[in-house]
Amino acid sequence: MTLSILLGMIGPWQVVIIIAIVILLFGAKKIPELMKGVGKGIREFKDATKEGSDDEDKNIEKKSE
Predict the structure, then answer these.
(1) Could you tell me how far CA 8 lies from the centroid of its own chain?
(2) What is the 8-class DSSP label of residue 28?
(3) This prediction's pTM
(4) pLDDT by residue (tens digit) across 3-55?
(5) Tally of domains within the chain
(6) Rounded to an integer, what distance in angstroms lies between the CA atom of residue 42 and that of residue 32?
(7) Is 57 strand, coil or helix?
(8) Following CA atoms 36, 37, 40, 46 in sequence, which dihedral angle do they give, to the nearest 10 degrees?
(9) Is residue 4 within a helix (H) or strand (E), and if so which, with residue range?
(10) How far apart are CA 12 and CA 49, in angstroms?
């Protein structure tokens, strides 16, 4: 039971190790490009979910008329 509790906690050393591995895998020059791609993907996802909720609102308005 205590093992499952310890596995869920991420400390500062684990974050440092993860960052070091990412830098080794992708290189320092590729990381900004990678983050730009992640940000673009998140923005597109938010826009798509916003459009979906807007469509649902329009459908609800049409049904109520």
Answers:
(1) 19
(2) T
(3) 0.48
(4) 555 566 778 888 889 888 988 888 888 888 888 999 999 999 999 888 877 66
(5) 1
(6) 15
(7) helix
(8) -120
(9) helix 2-7
(10) 33
The CA-atom distances, in angstroms, between 1 and each of 5, 11, 14, 30 are 7, 19, 21, 40
Amino acid identity for residue 21 in this structure: I
SS3 content of the chain, % helix, strand, coil (to 5): 85, 0, 15
The gap between the terminal CA atoms of the chain, to the nearest Å, is: 56
Residues 6+ apart with CB under 8 A from 22: 31
Can you read off the two tokens belonging to residue 7?
Answer: 């596995």
What's the rounded Cα separation, in Å, for the pair 65 and 51?
21
Q: What is the spatial distance between Cα 55 and Cα 24, in angstroms, rounded to a whole number? A: 44
Domain of residue 10: give its range.
2-64
What DSSP state is assigned to residue 9? -
